[in-house]
Design brief:
Elements lengths: L8 H16 L6 H12 L3 E5 L5 E5 L11 E3 L5 E4 L8 H10 L1 H26 L8 H27 L2 H4 L1 E7 L4 E4 L4 E10 L3 E6 L2 E2 L9 E6 L2 E6 L8 E9 L2 E12 L26 E5 L5 E4 L4 E10 L8 E6 L2 E2 L6 E5 L3 E6 L8 E9 L2 E12 L13 E6 L5 E7 L11 E8 L5 E3 L9 E5 L6 E10 L2 E2 L9 E2 L3 H9 L26 E8 L3 E7 L10 E8 L6 E2 L10 E5 L6 E10 L2 E2 L9 E2 L13 E7 L2 E6 L8 E10 L5 E3 L9 E4 L7 E10 L2 E2 L9 E2 L11 E8 L4 E6 L11 E10 L2 E2 L3 E2 L9 E4 L7 E10 L2 E2 L9 E2 L12 E6 L6 E6 L11 E8 L8 E2 L9 E4 L7 E10 L2 E2 L6 E5 L10 E4 L5 E6 L9 E5 L2 E2 L6 E6 L2 E6 L8 E7 L6 E6 L1 H15 L5 E9 ...
Parallel strand pairs: 6-13, 15-22, 97-104
Antiparallel strand pairs: 1-2, 3-4, 5-7, 7-11, 8-9, 8-12, 10-11, 12-13, 14-16, 16-20, 17-18, 17-21, 19-20, 21-22, 23-24, 24-27, 25-26, 25-28, 28-29, 28-30, 31-32, 32-35, 33-34, 33-36, 36-37, 36-38, 39-40, 40-43, 41-42, 41-44, 44-45, 44-46, 47-48, 48-52, 49-50, 49-51, 49-53, 53-54, 53-55, 56-57, ...
């Protein structure tokens, strides 16, 4: 027992701490930590542990004296799982966020680490257990042997610990077992496995085609497991999209490694392999027990937007069946790249409709957009292209904005900005580009380059480390600078390794993100030489150098100096003398083009500048990247009505191709327009947005960073129209007639002929015996052109099936559905068979023409008529109804009365004497809709009188022809019509129009989608056309106006007319009474051929001028005549007018009245007599007369006369009856005289008064309301009022009778209506009717509602106030203002008071109330007289007195002053005076 080893509990605890430290030291990482750990182990503290046999086991302490403090990492169970070295150069908040986001994963990794730790220490713990117990010698000997064994074990353990030292244990990750590629069937689950070694324990990430797999975001698709260095990736329910390369990437602080495996998913499907967006078959969903079917409807079409606009794309999605709480996964793609929501892209899923909104469109948004609906059973997709046009430029000729600005190779103070050139350069070539930058969080844009750069790539330097920037680009040409491009994504100026760590996430599970640094930075270490200095980019404008940092760099950041040397010299110049750069990249500008330079780099830090690296070779400054060569010839083919497909040969000499731009131009113009605003890399592109029927040429150019290539040669001109395709398959194969050895078959032509006429049909047959089908055989080797076929050489009583294929110029269609099994036996029915070949022409919004062929089997008697039935496509069999009642004997019929936009189905039945046969196969559905751009047949009559019908077609295809028919039978006889066709226009000319040409003429354009039209020529229409033809053959000069006559000044007469058009050869004969007159003294002629006006002037009309005046015109073969007859009373009236006009002219030669005397009433209601005179002189006499009496200068009336600017005014003022009379003005001088009168009596006076009444009535203001103590008053003001003005008042449209309570009147200019003591009956509408000389002017006021309440309330208030004022207590008299009384006398004063009720009376002296006593006697008698008596007054009674009266309506005081004097004092004063 004495030799027993006793270990205290404290020593055991120390051992546990030592053990924990060794375990945590596994995570030391950097090179410095390795050297330092070795140093520490040689100076550690010694700890002796005695065993039972007294042996000492010496162990080094894990905590040396010089060791710095470590930061232990603990889990929630306080287990040490590692240590954290202080973060260097990292953003602590970013690291903290990453640590919190991955807390769950960190804990899982910590548990795995503890499990691995226990594997290593379990044996050591068992070896270190010590038991204290009593032993016998035998036991002691046995234990001594055991201690020897224990000593050997401890030695082995020490060796093991040395091996487990972190300095020798840590190593980069490596794959022990790599993942293997697999091939699986669609719908299966595949699992990739790998085993990885490395210490510290590597982290693993799985990638699919270089895209990180986020298993937590898609748990239904991926499962990732990691247990004891064994890792797996499980991919569930594989589909075609899972075919890819999968990378397993592992990383620890010592390095990284990756391995790739390829997964190929095969599909149970024959035929060609489906593309990534092609629909695939749906599968059964075991989770919900159904198979989901997704259908996309209301699809968005090819869309066009403009920069700056907002564009929305949407589709309605139906998922069947509907499962509660289940929604499909809706994903939008642009050019097969999934879109994520951002400030430019907004997605919305309402449960039924998927919407994608592109906010503020830019050319980067152009591309093929795909909507993918993922369900548990598969997916459904739909795609359409979106084109983004350039916004309008602010200055004509400037280029449009560049696009797709991106940042590359970002470093601490350097980034490379790239962009794509725009499609259009403007009016001149682009000279270069300006690059702008903006720091994130600000709105200030700074230009990065002073001179424009030609390359679409530019290195930006001078960035501030740690800050984020966005960039934009502007293009420059001779016209100016373009708008800026859309800003790039933000980029951080930082070290690439730091960025990689941030992107990779936490590098160790227990610390979030760790950047390993050296604990004891060595001070004063000069960095070594950088390596691998190369020229990464070289252009005429700049050269970019790149290098690797030095291996020996100390423990602080390094910076760099760049030096250059002209080739052939040894003169090295430092380029960045002011500030060293932080990034291993540098752009050198201002180098001489064509010269050769060498470059080298030095490193520097606080310790100094290192040695330069080896110089580069001689680098000649110039462009390394050449312009691409011109693309190959472009071939354009038709696609749709608004698009074509362009294909071209790729550029043969091109490096770093960005893409191609396609341009188009309308033939005949020189304006080239871009087809795409975003370059495409493929050599095939569908150009949308073209105009149907327009002829275009196309060209293409390539673009790379150096610029644009030369354009390809122009393509051949192509007309935009739908491409010709193979027609659809025929339908409705039926039996029309049967005999012993043949059967007559019929069918319906294809619904879509593929853009070209059907050239024929091929029939196949097979036999059917007992349900067994034979092989198909061709029935005819030459195509039949009708919709029926006689199948001959058949066997009687044998069943056959038939199928039909159509053929057009594009090829043969797929076969129709087989007919029913038909037995070949002779028919015995009597009614006719079904008609054949139903088809429609001239489809319009409300009508359609149905045509057919007679049935092959007519029955026992010939067919004598047809019945056409119609129904809407959505109606059932009960919806059929007859179009007409009587049988139609023709083989066509025009159906009218259709609803535009509705679809209809037709069928036809034939009739003979035996009855009506079975209906034909249904035709349709036919959409009643006029196609855009549809033309109708136009009937034209040319200048030579030729009548023709014209039909135009803008959608002519290759091989299209115009086919004219009469009554829907092709015209073969050219004796009646001559057909002339030029390009897209056909003219049918009538050779000799007559009644034989009556009928319906139609024209059909072959190889089109049924383009046709018709015109029915009736007898009436033919007669009208013949009349027009005659007019054209024998033309008449058209007149705008027939001959007219005007009276001119001096009584001259003007005869004139105007023709619509004439030539310079037009001649005019002027005729009077069939005699041609010529120009002379009596007649003056004029013919203006430019305006077509023909004139003839006469100075006067005499008696001999009565008769007919005529103008005869001749213009080539056209003639025209117009006449004017002046005879009888009409001539004499015109002659009088002519004489009057001449007399007027003579009158105006002297002083005269331009405007005769008349009156006017001003707004102030003054009456003015006015006239306007002309041609007066200073000596002209102007005299006014009233009632033939001259107005003298000293008369009162003379003061009313004014003259200003040729206007004479007599201001009567406010008119009255005394102003009535006859007023006259006379003008006289040596040239003549004139006078004007105005009779201001009777009718004249009344007219003036009526005008005055009008002015007064219209000057009235709106009715207003005023409340008084007596009632309510309605009033209006007028400018002036005369007693003759009639004013009436109405209440509720009834005239108000005057009474004591309601009175109307006038006070000055106020018109009023007073309502005394108003009641509720007085509410309502009041109207004031003022006579205005004709009817009256009405002013209305509605005295009800709030107006009544306010007026009535104010009336009551005023009434109460008046009562109070009347009954208010007051002193009405009797008291003097001042009373002077001799001392010793008695004073008696009486005041008269009033008030109802009787007021209270109080006497006051000097503001104190008096009380009756022996000295003061106060009385109040009869409620009216208040008296005060002061006996034997003394000087003390002097002062201010007041009689105060008061009742409930008010209070009033009558004040007076009492002055008491002494007689002696008065006498002495008088003596002194």
């Amino acid at each position: 027992m004495s030799a027993a080893l006793h270990l205290s509990q404290k020593q055991q605890h120390q051992q546990q701490e030592q053990q924990h430290h060794y375990e945590s030291s596994y995570y030391l990482s950097s090179r410095s930590s390795v050297s330092q750990q070795t140093h520490r182990s040689s100076h550690g503290l010694k700890v002796s542990v005695k065993t039972a046999k007294g042996q000492e086991v010496v162990k080094l302490s894990p905590l040396p004296k010089r060791a710095k403090r470590t930061y232990l990492a603990m889990d929630t169970d306080c287990e040490v799982i590692g240590y954290v070295v202080p973060v260097f150069r990292a953003n602590h908040e970013v690291v903290r966020g990453l640590m919190e986001a991955q807390d769950e994963e960190v804990r899982e990794e910590g548990v795995n680490y503890v499990a691995m730790r226990n594997l290593f220490v379990r044996e050591a713990r068992e070896a270190m257990e010590v038991r204290v117990e009593k032993r016998t010698r035998t036991t002691h000997v046995r234990e001594s042997a055991e201690r020897l064994a224990l000593g050997r074990t401890m030695d082995e353990w020490a060796e093991f610990r040395k091996k487990m030292n972190p300095d020798s244990l840590t190593h980069p990750p490596e794959f022990i077992v790599k993942p293997r590629g697999q091939t699986v069937w669609e719908g299966k689950t595949v699992k990739l496995h790998c085993t990885v070694a490395g210490w510290p324990k590597p982290r693993i990430a799985w990638y699919k085609n270089n895209v990180l797999i986020d298993a937590k975001a898609h748990p239904e698709k991926y499962t990732v497991e990691s247990n004891y260095n064994m890792h797996s990736l499980e991919i569930k329910n594989c589909d075609f999209f899972d075919t890819a390369q999968y990378y397993a990437s592992v990383l620890n602080v010592k390095g990284e490694a990756s391995s790739v495996a390829t997964i190929v998913v095969k599909r149970f499907q024959e035929g060609e392999e489906a593309g990534p967006l092609d629909p695939k078959p749906h599968g059964f969903c075991a989770e919900h027990g159904v198979t989901f079917e997704a259908t996309i409807i209301d699809k968005f079409e090819v869309a066009f937007g403009r920069e700056g606009e907002t564009l929305s794309l949407g589709c309605t999605v139906i998922v069947y069946p509907t499962v509660k709480k289940y929604q499909p996964d809706v994903v939008w793609y642009r050019n097969s790249v999934a879109l994520k929501p951002s400030k430019w892209v907004h997605t919305h899923w309402s449960g039924e409709r998927a919407t994608l909104t592109l906010v503020h469109l830019n050319k980067e948004d152009e591309g093929l957009y795909t909507l993918r609906i993922n369900t548990k059973s598969g997916f459904e997709t739909y795609s359409a292209y979106v084109f983004v046009r350039d916004a309008d430029v602010e200055v004509e000729g400037v280029p449009v904005a560049p696009l797709d600005v991106r940042c590359h190779d970002a470093n601490k103070d350097y980034v490379v900005v790239t962009w794509k050139q725009p499609a259009m350069e403007g009016s001149s070539s682009i000279l270069g580009y300006y690059i702008d930058r903006c720091e994130v969080g600000t709105h200030h844009w700074a230009q990065c380059n002073d001179a424009p750069v030609k390359y679409a790539r530019f290195p930006v330097t001078g960035l501030v480390e740690g800050r984020s920037y966005v960039f934009r680009v502007r293009a420059l040409n001779r016209a100016g600078v373009s708008r800026p491009s859309r800003g790039s994504e933000p980029v951080v100026a930082m070290d690439p390794s730091d960025r990689a760590r941030l992107r990779a996430g936490p590098s160790a599970p227990w610390t979030g993100m760790i950047k390993f640094t050296e604990e004891d930075p060595t001070v004063g270490v000069v960095p070594g030489e950088p390596s691998e200095v190369v020229v990464t980019e070289a252009t005429k404008s700049y050269v970019v150098l790149g290098w690797k940092p030095p291996i020996q760099r100390g423990h602080e950041g390094v910076m760099y100096y760049i030096e250059k040397c002209i080739a052939g010299t040894d003169n090295w110049q430092r380029v960045n003398t002011g500030m060293p750069v932080k990034s291993p990249r540098f752009a050198l500008f201002d180098l001489a083009e064509g010269k050769a330079y060498s470059f080298r780099v030095r490193c520097c830090n606080s310790a100094g500048v290192g040695e330069p690296c080896a110089p580069t070779g001689d680098i000649t400054v110039g462009d390394k990247l050449d312009l691409p060569s011109a693309p190959g010839s472009i071939v354009v083919t038709r696609n749709t009505d608004t698009s074509v497909v362009a294909s071209w040969g790729a550029s043969k000499e091109v490096v770093h191709l960005v893409g191609y731009y396609i341009e188009c131009c309308v033939v005949g113009s020189d304006v080239w327009m871009p087809c795409n605003n975003k370059p495409v890399k493929q050599t095939r592109f569908v150009c949308h947005g073209l105009s149907t029927g327009v002829n275009y040429v196309f060209k293409v150019k390539a673009v790379n960073a150096a610029g644009y290539s030369q354009s390809s040669p122009d393509s051949d001109a192509v007309v935009v129209k739908a491409a010709i395709a193979v027609s659809e398959k025929p339908a409705g194969v039926t039996l029309l007639e049967a005999a012993k050895d043949y059967m007559m078959l019929g069918w319906t032509e294809p619904a879509n002929n593929g853009g070209a006429d059907i050239r024929g049909y091929f029939v196949d047959y097979r036999t059917v015996k007992g349900g067994v089908f034979g092989k198909w055989h061709e029935m005819n080797h030459k195509a039949v052109t009708t919709n029926s076929f006689k199948a001959e050489n058949l066997k009687e009583n044998v069943f056959y099936e038939f199928q039909v294929r159509s053929m057009n110029m594009a090829g043969v269609s797929k076969p129709s559905l087989p007919s029913a099994a038909l037995e070949c036996k002779e028919w015995t029915i009597t009614v006719p068979g079904a008609p054949l070949g139903l088809h429609v022409l001239e489809v319009r919004d409300t009508s359609v023409v149905v045509l057919w062929e007679p049935p092959t089997f007519a029955g026992r008697t010939p067919v004598n008529g047809y019945y056409l039935d119609i129904k809407e496509a959505s109606a059932g069999e009960e919806g059929w109804k007859a179009v007409h009642e009587k049988a139609n004997k023709l083989k066509y019929m025009k159906v009218t009365g259709l609803n535009a936009g509705a679809s209809y189905v037709f069928r036809l039945r034939a009739q003979n004497l035996a009855g009506v046969g079975k209906p034909s196969a249904a035709l349709g559905p036919v959409l009643a809709q006029t196609r855009p751009g549809t033309h109708e047949i136009i009937v034209d009559v040319d200048d030579d009188g030729v009548i023709s019908m014209i039909f135009e077609c803008s959608e002519m295809a290759a091989g299209s022809e115009f086919v004219w028919s009469k009554n829907y039978q092709t015209i073969t006889d050219t004796s009646r019509l001559t057909i002339v066709t030029e390009k897209g226009k056909s003219r049918a000319i009538f050779n000799d129009p007559s009644l034989e040409d009556l009928g319906t003429f139609s024209c059909v354009v072959t190889n089109t989608d049924g383009i046709s039209s018709s015109y029915t020529l009736t007898e009436e229409g033919l007669k009208r056309l013949l009349d027009i033809s005659y007019d054209h053959k024998f033309p008449v000069i058209p007149f705008k106006n027939e001959m007219a006559m005007d009276l001119l000044e001096k009584g001259r007469v003007r005869f004139w007319t105007q023709v619509e058009k004439c030539t310079s050869a037009c001649q005019v004969d002027y005729v009077f009474n069939d005699v041609i007159v010529t120009q002379g003294k009596k007649y003056t002629m004029n013919f203006d051929q430019n305006t077509g006006i023909i004139e003839m002037f006469m100075d006067s009309l005499e008696v001999t001028d009565e008769g007919t005046f005529t103008f005869n015109l001749v213009d080539g073969k056209a003639k025209g005549t117009t006449s004017l007859v002046l005879i009888g009373e009409e001539f004499r009236e015109l002659q009088k007018k002519s004489e009057f006009e001449r007399a007027e002219w003579v009158r105006k030669q002297g002083p005269h009245f331009v405007e005769y005397l008349d009156f006017t009433v001003t707004q102030e209601c003054n009456v003015l007599l006015k006239c306007k005179i002309g041609n007066v002189k200073p000596e002209t006499e102007i005299n006014w007369y009233k009632d033939s009496l001259d107005c003298e200068e000293d008369d009162e009336d003379a003061k009313k006369i004014e003259r200003q600017d040729g206007v004479l005014t007599f201001n009567i003022g406010k008119i009255s009856k005394k102003d009535a009379g006859a007023y006259e003005v006379q003008l006289r001088d040596e040239r003549g005289k004139d006078r004007s009168t105005f009779n201001l009596t009777d009718a004249g006076y009344q007219a003036v008064m009526n005008e005055l009444f009008r002015v007064i009535a219209n000057s009235s203001t709106d009715i207003k309301v005023l409340s008084t103590e007596h009632g309510i008053m309605l009033y209006s003001f007028v400018t002036y009022y005369t007693e003759e003005q009639r004013v009436g008042w109405l209440h509720k449209d009834a005239k108000i009778a005057a009474s004591e309570r309601v009175k109307a009147g006038v006070t000055g200019e106020q018109l009023w209506l007073k309502i005394n003591e108003p009641t509720e009956k007085d509410k309502g509408k009041y109207t004031m009717d003022i006579f205005d000389g004709k009817d009256g002017v009405k002013r209305v006021f509605d005295l009800s509602g709030q107006a009544w309440e306010e007026a009535f309330e104010e009336f009551q208030r005023l009434k109460a106030a008046a009562i109070a004022e009347r009954n208010r207590a007051r002193v009405i008299g009797g008291l003097p203002d001042v009373v002077a009384i001799q001392e010793g006398k008695s004073l008696n004063l009486t005041g008269n008071v009033w008030g109802e009720p009787v007021p209270e009376v109080t006497w006051i002296k000097n503001d104190r109330q008096l009380v009756a006593d022996d000295h003061y006697a106060l009385k109040f008698e009869h409620g009216k007289f208040a008296s005060i008596t002061i006996a034997a007054v003394t000087t003390a009674d002097s002062g201010k007195y007041a009689l105060l009266v008061k009742n409930k309506y008010g209070t009033e005081a009558g004040e007076f002053t009492v002055s008491v004097y002494i007689p002696e004092d008065e006498e002495s004063k008088e003596k002194k005076e």
